[in-house]
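During the reporting period the student researcher (J.K.) took over the structure-prediction task from the postdoctoral fellow and processed the backlog of single-chain submissions. One of the processed entries is reproduced below for the supervisory committee.
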Amino acid sequence: MKSPSNRLFRYTEFPYLLNMLMSGSLVLPRARSWDDRNDRVAIEQYERHCDGNRCYALCMTSGSETYHHWKIFTSGIGGVCLKLDRRILLDHLGTIQNATLRDIQYWSLNEFKASELDVNDIPFIKRYAYRDEKECRLVLVNDQDSPTLQLELPRDAIKGIILNPWVDEDTAIAMKEVLRTAAKNPELKVNRTELLNSARWQERIEDAMDQC
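J.K. obtained the following structure tokens:
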């Protein structure tokens, strides 16, 4: 089996990331606001086995950057992506009761066999149609009853921030300054993605044309 990537990526919006950096915490929501009803039902069913506790979850990906990630999980020029170190995050979560970080397993309806499942697998399975997301999910079971729950984020787990491909250069410069200040790290790597405008890719196209 292929080892999981040590990098995790959390696509979100600029204000939410700013809050995470300033508070030094990950913000885990309840599943009731999620778009995928299959996911919501899975979490609701799982909560039935949590002795009255609530289930909070944060969705990330271990997959490489794609256009899909930016279009689905962010909204235009406010989109950002937080890069995290999986091992450091896992070490930290090991000190927190009822916190679990696992890669999602993707099953088709034909593959779904309840007899092969443990109840603790339920928050970590999704329909096969979502397999390209390569999701890694952080789940925390807690007795608090609130829309969100904050979980300490180790500063050394933050490995960089990627800005969306639509933001203009002047705005990107301002965003970098604000994010580094919020993270209390003037050396933090904050770069705008080249996904839609890569000079290296365009140069290779031009070189290829010259050789045709």
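The committee noted the following: DSSP finds six helices and eleven strands in the chain.
J.K. will present the remaining backlog at the next meeting.
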